[in-house]
Amino acid sequence: MTRTIAVSGASGKTGFRVAEEILAAGDQARLLLRPESVIPSTLEGCEQHRLNLMDGNALDDSLRGADALVIATGARPSVDLTGPMKVDAWGVERQIESCKRVGVNRVVLVSSLCAGRWRHPLNLFGLILVWKRVGERSLEKSGLDWTVIRPGGLSEREDELETEGVLWTGADRQESDSIPRRLVARCCIEALNTPDSIGRILEVTSSREQPVMSLQDAIANC
Ligand SMILES: NC(=O)c1ccc[n+]([C@@H]2O[C@H](COP(=O)([O-])OP(=O)(O)OC[C@H]3O[C@@H](n4cnc5c(N)ncnc54)[C@H](OP(=O)(O)O)[C@@H]3O)[C@@H](O)[C@H]2O)c1
Description:
Blueprint: E1 4-8, H1 15-24, E2 28-33, E3 47-50, H2 56-63, E4 68-71, H3 83-102, E5 106-110, H4 128-140, E6 145-151, E7 153-155, E8 165-169, E9 178-180, H5 181-192, E10 200-207, H6 215-221
Parallel strand pairs: 1-2, 1-4, 2-3, 4-5, 5-6, 6-10, 7-9
Antiparallel strand pairs: 8-10
The protein binds NADP nicotinamide-adenine-dinucleotide phosphate.
The site of NADP nicotinamide-adenine-dinucleotide phosphate has 22 residues, from helix 3 and strand 7.
């Protein structure tokens, strides 16, 4: 049966790829966007909801009836250092609260390696890693079926990804390395399709030297 999967931050460089991968898998992608967000032409046929994350009623309307939500919002680099608090903590919290109100039980959150670290250079941007952990904690405490995907440094590379393996680990096991956004998008879909990923924080990086392994096998080998 075709599922409807909502994607917030669907105009972002990871979010649009998540939506594309949902479509490639034969499901419906429902895009949660800001009023001024720009999406690629590949997503123009998708259902779109344009809203402010702080507007609970609008969020409820956008999520009602969805089978799952992938949260791919994230504060964009800016001189406004309150962005991470507003988007990565409060914005995530609002989305989770809305999921609880309207009965969307499955949520995958794109977070970051090193979430929760205080001493890290990335925190020069509004303590972003601290606020990301606050967002993760909201999801962990939600009672929903949740998975957190923590990617390493994100790249735009799209070539030769079929033979590139993902290193899946549990929380606080990886500190560096990178992964193409396309593979992060596929990791989110794989998590949605892998019930054993529920209730787990999964860190992901990739390399051409890493053997290709399914999430199910990675969990079994943990
Ligand atoms: N960059 C890295 O190397 C890296 C590493 C690990 C994890 N991450 C995390 O991975 C996620 C995806 O990163 P990315 O670089 O692919 O994303 P991105 O291209 O920066 O996209 C961010 C998305 O969030 C939306 N957004 C930003 N502020 C918002 C707000 N106030 N209200 C609603 N939506 C808002 C943006 O909407 P608009 O299009 O309207 O701006 C966009 O859709 C983020 O959470 C990021 O922090 C990044």
